[in-house]
């Protein structure tokens, strides 16, 4: 959406204009939904969470209208909903809480480092959602620094199988980046 048009809609949203809200919803709902689908595989849950994000936009419309970047505002809301979803489901609870507390107290000067940490956290979640064998092979390759041949010997599988798993893991991560990067631009 054009920045000037977005600014016009945000100003109207701050005044309670339903039509402006509808235009923002129609422009950004699919972006929020795609972002959420990158981390939550249950489409019904994603639709509910995306709806919650926009209910909060309406509820806090004056705050949303004053946001410096509406896309960044939506990203933060969607990101927080992802955290809440995983926390509710007891996945990565301690890891997410550590990062969540950091975001509350962070100084604006550290924003780039924080965004990098957020991206790392989101990629960690994507890795943890990989099938067990793929996740194990990817971690052995990228985190433990083992060669494909070493991995194939340790797991007693074909070297080509290791290569296929790593290729697919990288493809999975590229898909996540494709979903996430629009929020960082």
From TrEMBL:
It holds the Pfam family Sigma70_r2. Residues 126-173 form the RNA polymerase sigma factor 70 region 4 type domain. Keywords: Sigma factor, Transcription, Transcription regulation. The keyword Isomerase does not apply. Transmembrane segments: none annotated. InterPro entries: RNA_pol_sigma-70-like, RNA_pol_sigma-70_dom, RNA_pol_sigma70_bacteroid, RNA_pol_sigma70_r2, RNA_pol_sigma70_r4_t2, RNA_pol_sigma_r2, RNA_pol_sigma_r3/r4-like, Tscrpt_reg_LuxR_C. The keyword Transcription regulation applies. Residues 24-87 form the RNA polymerase sigma-70 region domain. PANTHER family: RNA POLYMERASE ECF-TYPE SIGMA FACTO (PTHR43133), RNA POLYMERASE SIGMA-70 FACTOR ECF SUBFAMILY (PTHR43133:SF46). Belongs to the sigma-70 factor family. ECF subfamily. This is RNA polymerase sigma-70 factor (ECF subfamily). It comes from Parabacteroides faecis.
């Amino acid at each position: 959406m054009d920045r000037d048009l977005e600014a016009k809609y945000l100003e109207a949203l701050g005044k309670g204009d339903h039509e402006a809200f509808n235009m923002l919803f129609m422009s950004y709902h699919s972006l929020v939904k795609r972002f959420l689908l990158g981390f939550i595989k249950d489409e019904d849950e994603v639709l509910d969470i995306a709806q919650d994000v926009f209910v909060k936009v309406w509820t806090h419309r004056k705050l949303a209208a004053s946001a410096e970047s509406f896309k960044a505002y939506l990203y933060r809301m969607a990101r927080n909903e992802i955290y809440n979803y995983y926390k509710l489901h007891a996945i990565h609870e301690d890891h997410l809480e550590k990062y969540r507390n950091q975001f509350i107290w962070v100084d604006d000067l550290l924003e780039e480092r924080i965004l990098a940490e957020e991206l790392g956290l989101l990629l960690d979640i994507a890795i943890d959602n990989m099938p067990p064998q793929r996740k194990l092979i990817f971690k052995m390759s990228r985190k433990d620094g083992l060669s494909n041949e070493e991995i194939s010997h340790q797991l007693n599988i074909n070297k080509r199988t290791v290569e296929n798993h790593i290729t697919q893991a990288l493809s999975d991560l590229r898909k996540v980046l494709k979903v996430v990067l629009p929020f960082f631009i």
